[in-house]
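For practice. Any example?
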Amino acid sequence: MNGVIRKLAQRLIVVSLALLMPGVSQAGQALTLMTHDSFNVSKEVIAEFEKTNGVTVRFLKSGDAGAALVQAILSKNNPMADLFFGVDNTFFSRAIGADIFEPYDSPMLAAIPDQLQLDSENRLLPVDYGDVCLNYDKAWFATKGLAPPTDLADLVKPEYKGLTVVQNPATSSPGMAFLLATIGKFGEGKYLEYWKQLRDNEVLVAQGWSDAYFGHFTAASKGDRPVVVSYATSPPAAVYYAETKPEEAPTAAVVSDDNAFRQIEFVGILKGSENRELARKFVDFMLSTPFQEDIPLQMFVYPANSEAALPEIFVQHSQIADKPVQVDPAAIEANREKWLEEWTNVMLR
């Protein structure tokens, strides 16, 4: 009964939000982008698109990526927006299978590397990417005279006992990405053994990224964990947000081969949009260099457009994985719930 009530509540939320969007159906007047809560872009960048096209761009932030996608799927017969941004490769097959996006062969795709383009029909077009990986506190390891980890396998060694904090994959996007990294690296038949070894080596499981990073990671809190699951772009973020900018990032990311999971985020035009031409122009705009060059310091991920220049702080303090872990999006969709259940049985029960 509780599940039925929850589903009804979700549908009421969807309908209520749709009714609060009075300008969406007025072609040429307003364009609505549905997205997750972490989306951000400079006002002046959006203002330029609005001025050029005589349109007001509205942003409908709808929770985390998974929750936002659920809302978009539930409202497919009466779409709440013209476009959706925030589907990543962990939800890619679910989004494609729901048949809520229409194809658009943007001319801007010529500047997007082939390895980021996962949909041959261009219903979902890549906007940005980032590597989820281990981060460590440089000063902590230097003070202790202990070599920092260079591989996921290091974390189960006796000298790293009690040093690592990860996120619950059921409640955290980077937590899910890290779980997928272990599945891709060790294989479906062996990844649980790795997690059992992590458990026995006193790994700490936090609910989300903020709790792990700002609550337990020694480089960002008074915690006692010098290793945390975060992003390859966390070191430049640590420099960027520091009150006094250090010459060297206080943290480092482990991006050696087969130790990071690459998240790719996509944008798509929702079927039923009454502003199709404007929506296509906005997709082109999101993939163009003005928008792409705004991405790194707004969301601390990499732009998908290979022609976009990176800010100097990224050039100096960030690295990307040459060989990230690969897990097929269709396999993720088919096995997500099973993998989460198996992980939960090992780590939390």
Q: What stands out?
A: The radius of gyration is 21 Å. The chain has 14 helices and eleven strands. The CA atoms of residues 7 and 74 lie 10 Å apart.
